[in-house]
Hints:
Layout: H1 2-14, H2 26-35, H3 41-54, H4 58-63, H5 66-73, H6 80-95, H7 104-107, H8 115-126, H9 135-144, H10 154-167, H11 173-186, H12 205-208, E1 225-235, E2 244-245, E3 256-257, E4 260-263, H13 269-280, E5 286-291, E6 297-300, E7 304-315, H14 325-328, H15 335-342
Parallel strand pairs: 1-7
Antiparallel strand pairs: 1-4, 2-3, 5-7, 6-7
Helix pairs in contact: 1-11, 2-3, 2-8, 8-11, 9-11
Amino acid sequence: xxxxxxxxxxxxxxxxxxxxxxxxxxxxxxxxxxxxxxxxxxxxxxxxxxxxxxxxxxxxxxxxxxxxxxxxxxxxxxxxxxxxxxxxxxxxxxxxxxxxxxxxxxxxxxxxxxxxxxxxxxxxxxxxxxxxxxxxxxxxxxxxxxxxxxxxxxxxxxxxxxxxxxxxxxxxxxxxxxxxxxxxxxxxxxxxxxxxxxxxxxxxxxxxxxxxxxxxxxxxxxxxxxxxxxxxxxxxxxxxxxxxxxxxxxxxxxxxxxxxxxxxxxxxxxxxxxxxxxxxxxxxxxxxxxxxxxxxxxxxxxxxxxxxxxxxxxxxxxxxxxxxxxxxxxxxxxxxxxxxxxxxxxxx
Length: 348
């Protein structure tokens, strides 16, 4: 089909030089696909190099501690990806003798591997003729064929997968899948694509009908919740502090943080001081409390906006199991807390 041939020709002339495109090793392809979920290539690339250097094989990743994996993942976000990555590595290394499943159907059984990732691995590693459908593919197909189906609907995935399968080059499925995703990432971008210099400008239905900016249709919007975090940084006479592990399900599971006071809104010194002295740290003699920065840090997640304030609380006694600044940096933290530590605002 002309669509497939033109697309592949464009790809071979314009593709980016990416390390996971130079291998058919399912471990490295799996690693890259998990990292690039909801993450830009430029952001994910350094993490891919770091992981493949530290864990050159799936067995190396399986043998590592979860804490080490989370530390290396620090800053990439969506930490459940890292935890699932680690558990799946252990399953492949210990239960499957280090051998990856070699088909789309079997890959789907792996924890943290959905239809998109399974299709990517099956296609790129084993050249299985199965279409890969992500946001880029939704966009390219909806515009080229003028498909007005709301991509937020559960039925949309099945419709677009069938369409991708219909136009996909069965002899070059791996190249086709790479090509259509790359085309969406570089040429058929979400906003203001350069349609005048597009190889499909004579056949794209959306361009002919003046609908490029209307497609794909996506009606569902994520409801954003505002939360208010006050991190309380204890400091004793030795300069040591206290941290805790987030063990409850939810954001930042199994990462570390300073003692947390969550409130219903942004609060000031009086509220923090009262709760710190009377409830959270009543066993210590507090000799000073101060806010570490004038402005509240707003950390935006996909479904939550966290309004974060940092407070330094000096105590007279030595903190039991206190941690110094050097050791502090070895723990996996949410990036917003790690950046705070790196800037040495702990010594504000």
